[in-house]
Amino acid sequence: MSQSMRALVAGKVGEPADVLRLESRPLPTPKAGQALIRVRATPIHASDLHVLRGRYGFSPEFPTVGGHMECVGRIETLGPDTEGLTIGERVVDAAVPAVPGPQVSGTWQEYLVADKRRLLPVPDQLSDSSACQLAVNPLTALLLVTHELDVQPGEWLLQTAAGSTVGRLVIQLSRHLGIRTINVVRRREAVEEIKALGGDEVICTEDEDLLQRVAETAGPAGVRKAIDCVAGPVGAQVSQALAPGGEVVVYGALSTHRQTDPAALTIPLQARSVIYETKAVSGFWLNRWFGTAPPEDALRALSQVRSLVIDEVLSIPQGQPFPLERFTEAISLAEAPAHGTKPLFVFEEGGAKDDR
Predict the structure, then answer these.
(1) Other Cβ atoms closer than 10 A to 224
(2) Structural contact between residues 179 and 153, judged by C-beta atoms closer than 8 angstroms
(3) Residue 238: exposed, middle, or buried by beta-carbon count in 10 A (0-12, 13-18, 19+)?
(4) What is the pTM of this model?
(5) Please, is 91 exposed, middle or buried when counting C-beta atoms within 10 Å of its C-beta (0-12, 13-18, 19+)?
(6) What is the per-residue pLDDT across 320-353, written as a single tens digit (0 to 9) for each?
(7) What are the CA-CA distances from residue 183 to residues 34, 145, 337 (Å)?
């Protein structure tokens, strides 16, 4: 008797809807320090799709199971040397591949093996939708604000793409920590929404001057800390708007669709501003953070995120569930402009089957 499971597999680099196929695969067996997880829910991130297109910061070996970020499930079996975990325990798998680091299992499958050092127990009070989105965007927001920039209560934090998932989480976290936020959006209709969420100030680049508004808001002391995920001219304006000695951390490049426009992937900084005002521009990528942070530090940060979500400091929007069979529809939703809902692949209990 052998067991098989369903998996969404890309045979080669290409457009996800073209290269993904639903396949039957044998169940993997956990090795030392690993657990076999029965997946319950896993999101479709834009970065997951960029990986399949070959346009991300790392490339898996093809064919590859899709989904290289996160999932929630229950422990089915344990390999040797997995003390501290229990069969049946509900866990989040932070499946973000470490760079540098080994290949990890994709999450778009019914079962996967995971390193015990990447597994975080989660209580049943957290929905599958919230739990399966715990390890990427909320963790990114926490690390940007507290680890990369160490923003202190009362300080101003300037951020672009305030309406994005990470941007909204940054606003919620900053409000909890007593940090004041200046939030940049592209559309006028987003202004009131960001203010209602807790943003202190909102700048709309559609009809406002970013540099002027930052100066008016922050006054003579200015803003010394910023995060940017737009790049392009907007990222350059953020750097220019900072006070002398200020720093902007860049963690994305939303100014280009599907990351294909080289010009939009640049940040045209003003040399005089950088040199004479000693401003700094640095980058942040969650994969590289996982590649450099000790495993115990990573689990500690994930535990902190879990507490913030349980305590409702951070709110994760409900995702829209899809079975694997409807992957083209799910991918289409993930690509839709301003869709506002994260598509999730969901699995029923006991998805694997016996082949007799």
Answers:
(1) 20
(2) yes
(3) buried
(4) 0.94
(5) buried
(6) 999 999 999 999 999 886 667 899 999 986 444 4
(7) 42, 14, 20
